[in-house]
Write a structure and sequence with these properties.
single chain, about 0% strand, elongated, mainly alpha, about 160 residues, 5 helices
């Protein structure tokens, strides 16, 4: 799991970079009339056509988007939920657009979210199977009972 977490985190930042590049390509040549007509004017006032990551509702991206409780089971469920939320967002984008230069990269990103969801699910199963107790939710296995599974990438316990 050691390298999986780092690799996935790095790839997720690359997803943000790809989406930012798409937004830049779609907005760089907008006229003032198109900016006003599209509802893009409030964003333009603050950021011109620069990339400022934010939710569709206008809430800026910040560190509050990252969730961690320090409990492997809780954190893996959070990771899986984040992957599904991203997949749903990509599904919604694909329903709204018809530009092939946007569709293909979004389809690629959507596919990666599915793969990540599956990998996090595999790690969750491995953590649950390694616990002595079948009551996973009675304690924090990362704190109260260290996981004894061997990390395949680094051969550490």
């Amino acid at each position: 799991m050691c390298n999986f977490d780092n690799d996935t985190g790095t790839e997720e930042l690359a997803h943000l970079e790809m989406v930012a590049a798409i937004v830049h390509q779609l907005t760089r040549n907008l006229s003032m009339e198109e900016i006003e007509k599209s509802g893009f004017a409030p964003y333009y006032v603050d950021h011109t056509v620069g990339i400022w990551p934010q939710a569709a509702g206008g809430i800026p991206f910040n560190a509050c988007e990252f969730q961690s409780k320090g409990d492997p089971i809780t954190d893996l469920f959070e990771d899986m939920a984040a992957e599904q939320k991203a997949r749903t967002t990509y599904d919604n984008i694909l329903r709204l657009i018809d530009d092939p230069d946007v569709i293909e990269p979004i389809k690629f990103l959507r596919m990666r979210e599915i793969v990540h969801f599956q990998r996090f699910g595999e790690v969750l199963r491995a953590v649950q199977e390694d616990l002595d107790s079948k009551n996973f939710y009675a304690f924090n296995p990362g704190f109260d009972m260290p996981c004894m599974a061997t990390c395949k990438d680094c051969n550490r316990k």
